[in-house]
Amino acid sequence: MRAKITYLVTAAVLVFYFVLVGSRGVMLIQSGTPVTVTFGIAVLILPAIGLWFLWKNTQFVRRANQLAAELDAEGGLPVDELKRTPSGRIDRDSADEVFAQRKAETEAAPEDWRTWFRLAVAYHDARDTPRARKAMQRAIALHDGKPVQAV
Questions:
Q1: Is the pLDDT of residue 133 over 60?
Q2: Cα angle: 60, vertex 10, 82; to 5 degrees
């Protein structure tokens, strides 16, 4: 729940910032000189890119949460079997062991979105965020029946 609140607050601050920057861009365009119009257009492009990026990330998180809920309803969510250090951090060797297990499961069933979801969790636990994201994107695509590129 704390992560959702943090995400919502961050998104709200970003939207406020995009509106503020966008209004400055409009003011520059309204000035009417060639230089300010050019700067105004450039300033409007940044919030547009930011809003697109925020929207895509929000959709990704929403879809990943839907898959997690569906997998939970099936009783297929990965069990947290990771060893932790006294400070509570995940033990790297433990994460590597679980990752090897999840990778083997995914290689055995490469068209099953569930194995890709669990692999994404293992990547995340191993602190490999880019690969975790790609594995989750593949799980989403497989779940939705979309064509998936070979890895």
A1: yes
A2: 60
